Amino acid sequence: MGERSISRGNLGSWLAEARDAVVSIFFSAGCRICDQLLTRASRVPICDECLASFVPLTEKVCEICGRPIQSTALHDTGQNRCQICREKPPDQERTYAFDRARSFAAYDGPLVRAILLLKFERMEPLGAWFAERLAEVVHTQGLHGDVVVPVPLHRDRERERGYNQADLIARPLARRLKLPHRAVLLVRTRPRPDKHVLSLEERWESVRGAFATRPGSQVDNLRVLLVDDVMTTGATLDACARALRDAGAKSVLGLTVARAMRNPIIGPSSPEPKGAR
Fold first, then answer.
1. How many structural domains is the chain composed of?
2. Among 40, 97, 190, 215, which residue's beta carbon has the most beta carbons within 10 A?
3. Whole-structure pTM over 0.85, yes or no?
């Protein structure tokens, strides 16, 4: 019986390799990141080497915003929080409106190009692949939620693009976690400025008060898993979380595929930037 099982396993492996070889010959295509010829059958047009190059955030991270923290900083402070999250304003309960934020990998190298493919080419298989990674983050870290909600685009932007890239991740993530998917729960009421590159101050100003729950939505006492593609300063997740909390959400946990590492954070805990409300 054991030998038969092994033989069947070997046969299955051989057939899979043969299938990939046939696909690579008759439907050859290059990796959308490095242009290397794809030699396997997959709906995700990125080679294994590029997928493996994404750098998961496995080191110690801030318990609030998920930003990686050097071990020396943890030793010096005795806290699992970054400097920004330790220095919350005295008149506020927390630095951010969300309870915690977690990301799959660092926003760097090939992952930047992968995010652009998702954002501008509606690559749904890639969104599903990212959803698998975020589901692993949820399970590994013991996170819990009642509903999955994507960060919304403004209706004009979504009409122009034809889809919301955050929803390409949120929908398959909800299926994997066996949770309700509620893309209509949250809306963006004010569009992003037309300026292509925003300063850190402009990022916070552009999203302040720009989100609201849809009238009639049921949010009371829900633990919301809020999904987006990239977290840079945390401004967007913060603004969405404030709208959800104002509507009665019990907690908000931000989940993003990527986390920008190099930008300093300017937010509620920092002095108001010049010209801001």
1. 2
2. 97
3. no
